[in-house]
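Entry type: protein chain
Record version: 2
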Amino acid sequence: MKEKEIYDKLNGFITNNNYKIIKTEEKYCEMEATITETSLNPYKMPHGGFIFGLADTAAGIAAFTTKKKAVTVNASIDYLHSAKGNKLKAIAKNIKDGKNITVYEVFIYDENETLVAKSSITYFYIN
């Protein structure tokens, strides 16, 4: 899992938010995030930015498995349910892979396997 080797060298936002790779395959990534006090919004729920960051990271790693360089051209997220528990799980899957554009959907679940959010992220291949 070369993606994990590269990921383990990262610092900053990704590691500070306790995002961890669980599994990667071509055009696929599973990650989990541990919810801490710094992950919460004022209502003591996981902050939307924390959830979106997890979706963005999982999709980016899934796209990285293709060995192509890609940049984000669009991203959206729907928050569907408040999260329960101490961990979130993201599953990123490719739903469209064209010559120049690729699209990933990311599903975020809480510990009870409740769908918390769904994200769509579109990338443009730069080479």
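Comment: The beta strands are 19-25, 28-34, 70-79, 87-97, 101-110, 115-125.
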